[in-house]
């Protein structure tokens, strides 16, 4: 049996969708949560000095989307064919662009860069939310399945649901009006295959 | 026969790897250039308000990596198996992280962002290159094939070669240190399947 070991910070972030795939598909894995000095010690041993890293029988695969897509393909969570897979890839990469747009604000919020947090909230955070969440909601509507692909749940639902959870937690006053994206998150989190994990996982801000 | 239409700005940017894939595979396509002037009018007709878009028999696929991966898989340019494909995905996404890191510099350079471009050249661009280019060179060395995958050329070679072409122009004094990456670019551009296109395509700064 293949040995899987996921190494990531003790947060949801870019690791949670990977954990979801393992739990959804009922695949055993080692959920290695590390940070601080423990991370610094092993950082240079990782392919790009970044986490998450997935070790498969000891061989490393880096980058959250590469890991997630690889596992998703193995477990029927990457669309029903290459065209649907590509559409899902596009939505996820759009999500990544959306995240990148929020970076200047998050950088200041987390004390990693300088700037005026309140100003960036107004000029960066809120406009990005108001520009991009409607696009995601339109995609959900076009799909009609309640998930991002017509054929059913995929890794991209896991990615977006976790992102929505984070944004809702940080700025409920902005996100609460986006009922479709919130409904999507609830639908993903109601999947029976995820129940045991969702009931037991640590609660984190992001 | 499948009708392909690639819509992108009249630059290399994030459209060039799709063009290189199609030329390498000798697949006919319409290479539609959208000018920066006409773009605002068509923006809302695209899935995410972004280019490039690939229309496949009239149906749109957005996001440069989704497009490249979709075409690459069809034409043997996405690694020899799922594991190699995943490793290639990881390298491409790592390079995308590098590009995101350098964004403040590029935005200032193009007069679209704040900050002093000369200062950002040193604090953002040079720092990122010095940290990240050696990682790519190490991957090339480990591959041993002259390309990023052991099994041969892939879409990720096209992506990175194109990037190097741009970066080399913008920062020759920084980039000249990365001889293996510059050699990689030459190896990709020497592929006979690309010759006719490379000789005839417009020369652009990025």
TrEMBL record, chain A:
<dbReference type="InterPro" id="IPR004045">
    <property type="entry name" value="Glutathione_S-Trfase_N"/>
</dbReference>
<feature type="domain" description="GST C-terminal">
    <location>
        <begin position="81"/>
        <end position="206"/>
    </location>
</feature>
<dbReference type="InterPro" id="IPR050213">
    <property type="entry name" value="GST_superfamily"/>
</dbReference>
<dbReference type="GO" id="GO:0004364">
    <property type="term" value="F:glutathione transferase activity"/>
</dbReference>
<dbReference type="InterPro" id="IPR004046">
    <property type="entry name" value="GST_C"/>
</dbReference>
<dbReference type="InterPro" id="IPR036282">
    <property type="entry name" value="Glutathione-S-Trfase_C_sf"/>
</dbReference>
<feature type="domain" description="GST N-terminal">
    <location>
        <begin position="2"/>
        <end position="79"/>
    </location>
</feature>
<protein>
    <recommendedName>
        <fullName>glutathione transferase</fullName>
        <ecNumber>2.5.1.18</ecNumber>
    </recommendedName>
</protein>
<dbReference type="Pfam" id="PF02798">
    <property type="entry name" value="GST_N"/>
</dbReference>
<dbReference type="InterPro" id="IPR036249">
    <property type="entry name" value="Thioredoxin-like_sf"/>
</dbReference>
<dbReference type="GO" id="GO:0006749">
    <property type="term" value="P:glutathione metabolic process"/>
</dbReference>
<dbReference type="InterPro" id="IPR040079">
    <property type="entry name" value="Glutathione_S-Trfase"/>
</dbReference>
<dbReference type="InterPro" id="IPR010987">
    <property type="entry name" value="Glutathione-S-Trfase_C-like"/>
</dbReference>
<dbReference type="Pfam" id="PF14497">
    <property type="entry name" value="GST_C_3"/>
</dbReference>
<comment type="similarity">
    <text>Belongs to the GST superfamily. Sigma family.</text>
</comment>
<dbReference type="GO" id="GO:0005737">
    <property type="term" value="C:cytoplasm"/>
</dbReference>
<keyword id="KW-0808">Transferase</keyword>
TrEMBL record, chain B:
<dbReference type="GO" id="GO:0006749">
    <property type="term" value="P:glutathione metabolic process"/>
</dbReference>
<dbReference type="InterPro" id="IPR036249">
    <property type="entry name" value="Thioredoxin-like_sf"/>
</dbReference>
<dbReference type="InterPro" id="IPR010987">
    <property type="entry name" value="Glutathione-S-Trfase_C-like"/>
</dbReference>
<dbReference type="Pfam" id="PF14497">
    <property type="entry name" value="GST_C_3"/>
</dbReference>
<dbReference type="InterPro" id="IPR050213">
    <property type="entry name" value="GST_superfamily"/>
</dbReference>
<dbReference type="GO" id="GO:0004364">
    <property type="term" value="F:glutathione transferase activity"/>
</dbReference>
<dbReference type="InterPro" id="IPR004045">
    <property type="entry name" value="Glutathione_S-Trfase_N"/>
</dbReference>
<dbReference type="InterPro" id="IPR004046">
    <property type="entry name" value="GST_C"/>
</dbReference>
<comment type="similarity">
    <text>Belongs to the GST superfamily. Sigma family.</text>
</comment>
<feature type="domain" description="GST N-terminal">
    <location>
        <begin position="2"/>
        <end position="79"/>
    </location>
</feature>
<protein>
    <recommendedName>
        <fullName>glutathione transferase</fullName>
        <ecNumber>2.5.1.18</ecNumber>
    </recommendedName>
</protein>
<keyword id="KW-0808">Transferase</keyword>
<dbReference type="GO" id="GO:0005737">
    <property type="term" value="C:cytoplasm"/>
</dbReference>
<dbReference type="InterPro" id="IPR040079">
    <property type="entry name" value="Glutathione_S-Trfase"/>
</dbReference>
<dbReference type="Pfam" id="PF02798">
    <property type="entry name" value="GST_N"/>
</dbReference>
<dbReference type="InterPro" id="IPR036282">
    <property type="entry name" value="Glutathione-S-Trfase_C_sf"/>
</dbReference>
<feature type="domain" description="GST C-terminal">
    <location>
        <begin position="81"/>
        <end position="206"/>
    </location>
</feature>
């Amino acid at each position: 049996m293949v040995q899987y070991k996921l190494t990531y910070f003790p947060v949801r972030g870019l690791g949670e969708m990977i954990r979801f795939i393992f739990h959804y598909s009922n695949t055993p894995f080692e959920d290695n949560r590390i940070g601080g000095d423990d991370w610094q010690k092993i950082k240079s041993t990782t392919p790009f000095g970044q986490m998450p890293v997935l070790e498969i029988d000891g061989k490393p695969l880096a980058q959250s989307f590469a890991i997630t897509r690889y596992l998703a393909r193995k477990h029927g969570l990457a669309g029903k064919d290459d065209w649907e897979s590509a559409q899902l890839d596009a939505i996820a990469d759009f999500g990544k662009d959306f995240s990148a747009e929020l970076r200047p604000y998050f950088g200041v919020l987390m004390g990693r860069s300088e700037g005026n947090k309140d100003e960036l909230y107004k000029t960066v955070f809120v406009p990005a939310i108001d520009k991009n969440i409607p696009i995601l909601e339109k995609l959900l509507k076009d799909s009609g399945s309640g998930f991002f692909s017509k054929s059913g749940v995929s890794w991209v639902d896991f990615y977006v649901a976790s992102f929505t959870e984070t944004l809702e937690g940080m700025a409920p006053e902005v996100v609460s009006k986006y009922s479709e994206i919130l409904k999507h998150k609830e639908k993903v989190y109601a999947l029976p295959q995820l129940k045991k994990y969702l009931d037991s996982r640590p609660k984190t801000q992001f | 026969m499948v009708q392909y239409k690639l819509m992108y700005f009249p630059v290399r940017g994030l459209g060039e790897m799709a063009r290189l894939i199609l030329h390498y595979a000798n697949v006919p396509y319409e290479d539609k250039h959208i000018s920066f002037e006409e773009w605002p009018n068509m923006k809302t007709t695209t899935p995410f308000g972004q280019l490039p878009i690939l229309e496949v028999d009239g149906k749109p696929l957005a996001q440069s990596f989704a497009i490249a991966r979709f075409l690459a898989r069809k034409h043997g340019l996405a690694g020899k198996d799922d594991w190699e494909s995943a490793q290639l995905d990881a390298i491409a996404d790592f390079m995308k992280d590098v590009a995101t890191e350098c964004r403040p510099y590029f935005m200032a350079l193009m007069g679209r962002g704040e900050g002093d471009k000369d200062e950002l050249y040193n604090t953002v661009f040079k720092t990122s290159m010095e940290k990240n280019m050696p990682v790519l060179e190490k991957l090339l060395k480990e591959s041993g094939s002259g390309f990023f995958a052991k099994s041969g050329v892939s879409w990720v070679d096209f992506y990175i070669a194109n990037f190097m072409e741009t970066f080399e122009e913008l920062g020759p004094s920084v980039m000249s240190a990365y001889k293996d990456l510059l050699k990689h670019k030459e190896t990709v551009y020497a592929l006979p399947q690309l010759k006719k296109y490379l000789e005839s395509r417009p020369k652009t700064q990025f």
